[in-house]
Design goal:
heterodimer, A: 784 residues, alpha+beta, Aldehyde Oxidoreductase, domain 4, five-stranded mixed beta sheet, 19 helices, 30 strands, B: 487 residues, Uridine Diphospho-n-acetylenolpyruvylglucosamine Reductase, domain 2, Uridine Diphospho-n-acetylenolpyruvylglucosamine Reductase, domain 3, 4 domains, five-stranded antiparallel beta sheet, 20 strands, 29% helix
Chain lengths: 784, 487
């Protein structure tokens, strides 16, 4: 069930599909008819070879010898390369060094590629890659986040953000609680695995088709491993079969290996990972170990907090510095912590290097404060919603622990609305009554908010470019730096362009993202796709419009103010000229019909030395209320109903946004419930496919799912048509499910005990919480 | 040679690698790339296609299957329908509604979803399609983008719309299910495929042929659905030398009542046995709804599940609890064996060289007997059990006259809990006796810890399943007992 606000009442006559309308995804028909092409679906060029890699079977070891004879001799094998065969840079770390395209003498995780094979078939390459004989000298491996924390083994220095005197506030607080939690990682499980197709060009350069959220980085790194200037390499991304952060940096090694083999053989090479290889070799969401120490008054108002978040980064920095930063920025979630310290550690382990995943550390940071909110409520015998509402940022209590002032206070009213629309209070009392009469099944309810900072915290990434071309039939092509991974970015940008010129959406086509059309782009990440690229496209449109307006005014002898673009026409005083005709006239009069556009996000800055600044242009806000039912005999559970209220500002495309919200919520729910990454003590991933790693399936979708967009809430910042970002924030609405599970289990103790519930809260962990709660309850009865 | 109907055209293939999956053939040989590979293990559904199989009269029945774990060799005499049959707008109601309801985001899982729903549309009954039927049809299709709500909504709308393809539409067959004249008689002929590398695939059509083949090649592997066997090819990259399919042998198909026993042919699929078996033992119905996905249940067979001898197969525990008997056939004729004596160790059975599972004889209930089956897994849909408990209880006047308690996931083989059975037998059916049985379980099992569950959880849950059974049998809490029943 969905409720759509009428954001922009359309004039009586207007072009079709402008911003604010729920236009269908531009590839919708191609999707449903199997005609949308992904990398592995592209027509194969003449002489194509297929790649596979051999990877380390040890978490930490020195490679003593590598016998690749059997690999080379396998029928169909054309080339085998190792680190020694890389003509350019070996290190392809995206921000800091540490990621080798092929390991040299030391391996630092199971799954690290050590050699690559090109063969005439995919099957031959994979079978050959299994035939290597590698001898290792085993070194001590650190596998878990707590091991690394104890040994102070970090990939980057630890950071602290502090405001005021938290130690003093904690010491003086009338109430004080502390706790710890383990928050599990998450496999992206994009349905299309990593894939790349590299074709040598005539100048020994490379053209790379890649399933990447960051084509510019693919371009740069391929150039670097080949030892070429960047302009010899180009990357194109038409679409991805899902990304979720997993193709921000992780697509580049795949492209680099394809390019290295293509360069070595001077033939096109396709490299796509099988599902187990993808799960073993590529990074995932960081798992975290978090602690809190919080002081609060008798009403539950937080007076001081000391929070620690420690992420398992794996064997290299990758993006972990920024990811743990974002965990720190979100350790407050939506709450004013008053006197506060937040410490973040980037733990190094001999496991795959963890990476971006929708939310980028933010979700893991939020988990600790939401854990504390429930604990405070149980301690005081209050409803957790009341404690959450009490501590929300509001005027006067509006400065974060990193000194950014919250300027748009959306959440207090948003929470009130959701509390009413979800019938929270009545259901709370119904559920409490139900639980008293139901010894086996217990129901739980939780309403949790999300406040998520919008902007890359690496300031330089907050820029975007676009290219808009109008052709002489009036058709328009737009190209921009953003990539399409299913989120509907292309259609939103097309809507922006159609709105700029006031023409039907059918006239606008978004072409595949290419590094030679728009250069030096940022990754499509941090929920920034439409904010950044929409503004860049709009800038390009406005430049063209300025020229067209000036032309129209002079050509038809009118004032520029009298030239208006409306409903597929240009109006010049009483003269109405159809769009295509107008464009042709402009062309004949030598007026530019093409322009690039550019955007750089204003207002943002952050100083990591002091841990203060204004890293975010604005915050995205939303909340979810989830109800669960738990079986106290097995720990099995179901989510029965979820209500979501989301502030998308003035939505560019309400249905597309709702798709992001629902999908993000279910993905967040999966992260916190059934999606369990299991490693052996030796650091080997045991859950390497969908048979053991369980993402939500159709029956996990709450049977009653109600999503609404907050009405009349335009972004007060000058974003594209005053919309707000929507990509990542809904993932964190999944926290409502986790909190509801704790609530259900806590009912065993009449809501007086707040059981630990590490995530993912599999039925097994829920049953552990049930058993702990029953034991607590029995102890109380005995002492009473 | 094999011959089959594909998207309305007859395909004749003289040489086909016996190890080749339908998906590989479509994508690499035909370059029909609408069907996607998401996992190559039958767990994600991106590769879903529809196959039509003629019955004795030639009338076609259509099922969604995973093309990644189904052999090309099995297609002889069948119809194969892929997403490429639906590339003309406006398309099938499933497609138009998926578009209308924003049911696709990245689009990669979408062709598989369209195939699953198109099969449901073709098989839907008059009188409407329930939400449960829609969820069941989609249980084997993972989507990582949408969270499923728009897909479910699109499904409901599509199921109330008719689809009337023009004659000549590449998938017109599924609209009327009439016999395909081009396939007539093909299902009656046995065939053999072989590859230059020495691989072989035999598809016998009667028991004598199967016996002879098994006698000649006792090391051959039987394909009885192949939903697990195929993983050796797609995941371990093994080459299977000699495969014999039991799919087209009528004697191994179907369910018949023989006195007080229901006899189920070993090659009967889960989907085919679900209704007949559940009529006698209703507990199977809910369990079978959660065994694999619909795509798996359309291919996987009872004999395959048993002879595969996995410790976590879902059919053996309840059949052991019921005291089912296996009928084995082979070079030395037929013999019968209680099912619980069949499993010798992890993936080890008592099958002698050349032997095969012919059928399973399942006793029907007598007075005061009840069967309870409890499947526990991380996820409700399409997940392998952490623990499966199956309990047959004969209770009269509150006393347990007899019981058989069988578990999967608790040991290297599906096994009875003999100590727990002893603790219950002859005792009043109450909390104390159940507690004694739970205590005894620790003498029966010391389960493993693995990616699905820890040893401790398995043991605790196994005991609690007995507790749940007591509560269920006393009907105290009705629908307040299991989350799957709770509404």
């Amino acid at each position: 069930m969905r409720k759509l606000p009428l954001n922009s009442p359309a004039p009586a006559h207007s072009a079709r599909g402008l911003a604010g309308h729920s236009v269908k995804h531009d590839s919708a028909w191609k999707h449903v008819s199997g005609q949308a092409r992904y990398i592995d679906d592209m027509p194969t060029p003449e002489g194509i070879l297929h790649a596979a890699v051999g990877h380390s079977e040890q978490a930490h070891a020195r490679v003593i010898s590598m016998d690749l004879d059997a690999v080379r001799q396998y029928p169909g094998v054309v080339a085998v390369i190792t680190a020694k065969d890389v003509p350019g840079h070996l290190d392809i770390g995206p921000v800091f060094p540490g990621d080798l395209v092929l390991a040299d003498d030391t391996v630092e995780c199971i799954g690290q590629p050590i050699f690559a094979v090109a063969a005439t078939t995919h099957e031959a390459a994979r079978k050959a890659a299994k035939l290597a004989k590698v001898e290792y000298e085993i070194l001590e491996a650190v596998v878990t986040v707590t091991q690394a924390l104890n040994e102070e083994l970090f990939v980057r220095p630890s950071q602290t953000q502090q405001r005021g005197q938290p130690d003093q506030a904690l010491a003086q607080a009338p109430n004080r609680l502390s706790g710890e939690q383990f928050v599990g990682g998450q496999e992206h499980f994009y349905l299309e695995g990593q894939a790349s197709l590299a074709e040598p060009t005539e100048d020994r350069g490379m053209f790379v088709h890649t399933s990447s959220q960051h084509p510019s980085e693919v371009q740069k790194l391929v150039a670097e491993v080949l030892g070429l200037p960047i302009h010899e390499v180009h990357a194109e991304v038409r679409r991805m079969g899902g990304g979720f952060g997993g193709k921000e940096t992780q697509a580049a090694p795949v492209a680099c290996i394809a390019a290295l083999l293509a360069n070595a053989t001077n033939r096109p090479v396709k490299y796509r990972l099988s599902r187990p290889d993808d799960m073993i070799q590529t990074g995932k969401r960081h798992d975290f170990y978090n602690t809190y120490d919080i002081g609060f008054d008798d009403n539950g108002l937080i007076l001081g907090a000391d929070l620690m978040v420690a992420g398992r980064c794996g064997n290299s920095p990758d993006l972990s510095d920024a990811i743990v930063d974002r965990a720190m920025f979100h350790a407050d979630n939506a709450y004013y912590l008053d006197q506060a310290r937040v410490t973040g550690h980037r733990c190094k382990t001999h496991t795959v290097s963890n990476t971006a995943f929708r939310g980028f550390g933010g979700p893991q940071g939020m988990m600790i404060i939401e854990h504390a909110m429930d604990d405070i409520a149980r301690h005081l015998g209050q409803d957790p919603l009341d404690i959450r509402k009490l501590n929300l940022y509001r005027p006067g209590r509006d400065t974060t622990h990193y000194d950014q002032t919250i300027e748009q206070h959306v959440l207090p009213q948003l929470l009130n609305k959701l509390e009413t629309s979800s019938d929270y209070r009545q259901r709370r009392s119904d559920i409490t009554a139900f639980n008293q009469s139901s010894p086996i099944l217990k129901r739980g309810l939780a309403l949790t908010p999300v406040k998520f900072g919008i902007s890359f915290t690496a300031k330089h990434l907050n820029q975007a470019g676009a290219l808009v071309n109008i052709y002489t039939d009036g058709s328009i092509e737009v190209n921009h730096g953003g990539t399409e991974m299913g989120q509907g970015l292309y259609i939103k940008i097309a809507q922006v362009v159609a709105s700029a010129f006031q023409v039907d959406i059918e006239r606008v086509k978004v072409s595949a993202t290419r590094t030679d059309k728009v250069p030096n782009t940022s990754p499509t990440a941090a929920s920034s796709g439409s904010d950044l690229n929409g503004m860049a496209a709009l800038d390009a449109c406005e430049k063209i419009m300025a020229g067209l307006t000036e032309f129209a005014a002079s050509h038809w002898s009118a004032a520029q103010e009298d030239v208006t673009f409306t409903d597929n026409q240009v109006q010049i005083n009483d003269l109405t000229i159809p769009w295509a005709k107008f464009v042709q006239t402009a062309y004949m009069n030598r007026v530019p019909l093409s322009s690039s556009g550019f955007y750089a996000t204003p207002k943002i800055h952050y100083d990591p030395k002091t841990g203060t600044g204004h890293p975010f242009l604005y915050y995205s806000n939303c909340a979810a209320c989830s109800e669960v039912v738990v079986d106290t005999l097995t720990g099995e559970y179901r989510v029965m109903r979820t209500d979501i209220l989301f502030d998308a500002g003035r939505s560019l495309n309400p249905e597309i946004d709702i798709g992001q919200i629902e999908g993000g919520f279910v993905q967040g729910m999966g992260w916190l419930t059934t999606e369990e990454l299991v490693y052996s003590d030796a650091g080997k991933l045991l859950t390497t496919g969908p048979a053991t790693y369980k993402i939500p399936a159709v029956s996990d979708c709450p049977p009653d799912l109600r999503v609404a967009l907050l009405e009349n809430s335009p972004n007060r910042e000058a974003t594209v048509f005053h919309s707000k970002a929507v990509g990542e924030p809904p993932l964190m609405l999944g926290i409502s499910v986790w909190s509801a599970l704790r609530d259900a289990v806590s009912s065993i103790t009449d809501y007086r005990f707040s059981p630990a519930l590490d995530t993912p809260a599999t039925p097994e962990r829920v049953l552990t919480a049930v058993t702990a709660s029953q034991a607590w309850h029995n102890r109380q009865k005995e002492t009473a | 040679m094999i011959e089959f109907l594909m998207n309305g055209q007859i395909e004749k293939l003289d040489h086909i690698d016996p190890n080749l999956s339908i998906l590989e053939w479509l994508r690499t040989k035909m370059r029909l790339t609408g069907t996607k590979e998401g996992c190559a293990s039958g767990d994600c559904g991106a590769c879903t296609v529809i196959t039509g199989t003629p019955d004795e009269s030639g009338a076609m029945s259509y099922q969604a299957i995973n093309s990644c774990i189904t052999l090309m060799a099995s297609l002889h005499g069948k119809e194969l329908i892929t997403i490429e049959a639906f590339q003309q707008e406006p398309g099938h109601p499933v497609q138009s509604n998926m578009v209308k309801h924003h049911g696709a985001q990245c689009g990669f899982c979408t062709p598989g979803i369209v195939m699953s729903l198109t099969a449901l549309h073709a098989n839907r009954k008059k009188g409407g399609t329930s939400n449960d039927q829609i969820l069941e049809a989609l249980s084997g299709n993972l989507c990582r983008c949408t969270g499923y709500r728009p897909i479910i909504e699109a499904s409901h709308q599509a199921m109330v719309e008719e689809w009337q393809p023009e004659s000549g539409h590449p998938a017109a067959g599924i609209a009327h299910k009439a016999p395909a004249s081009s396939l007539t008689g093909m299902h009656k002929n046995s065939y053999t495929l072989s590859s230059p590398e020495g691989c072989r695939y035999d598809s016998p059509v009667n028991l004598d042929q199967l016996r002879a083949l098994r006698r000649e090649a006792p090391a051959s592997r039987l394909v009885a659905g192949g939903t697990d066997l195929m993983l050796e090819i797609t995941q371990q990259l093994s080459t299977l030398g000699h495969l014999i399919s039991v799919e087209r042998i009528p004697e191994l198909q179907g369910c018949v009542l023989d006195g007080s026993e229901l006899v189920i042919g070993a090659a009967t699929t889960y989907q085919q046995l679900r209704t007949p078996l559940s009529e006698h033992w209703p507990a199977f119905d809910a369990m079978l709804e959660r065994l694999g996905s619909l795509q798996i249940r359309n291919r996987g067979t009872l004999g395959g599940n048993i002879a595969n001898a996995s410790p976590i197969g879902d059919m053996p525990p309840p059949l052991i609890a019921l005291g089912a008997t296996l009928v084995l056939d082979g070079p030395d004729g037929e013999r019968r064996l209680p099912l619980d004596e069949f499993f010798q160790g992890y993936k080890q059975t008592s099958l002698q060289p050349g032997e095969f599972v012919h059928s399973v004889r399942v006793p029907v209930p007598s007075a005061n007997e009840a069967l309870y089956i409890h499947k526990v897994s991380k996820r409700l849909d399409d997940d392998i059990s952490a623990v499966l408990g199956a309990f047959r209880l004969t209770i009269d006047k509150g006393v347990v006259l007899a019981c058989r308690l069988a578990f999967g996931g608790m040991a290297a083989v599906p096994a009875r809990a003999l100590h727990a059975e002893a603790a219950l037998t002859g005792q009043p059916w109450n909390e104390e006796s159940v507690q004694a049985a739970i205590t005894a379980l620790t003498s029966d099992f010391s389960p493993l810890s693995d990616a699905r569950a820890s040893s401790g959880y398995r043991l605790q849950v196994a005991g609690n399943l007995l507790r749940r059974t007591l509560l269920a049998s006393t009907s105290l809490y009705g629908e307040q007992l299991m989350v799957t029943d709770y509404a």
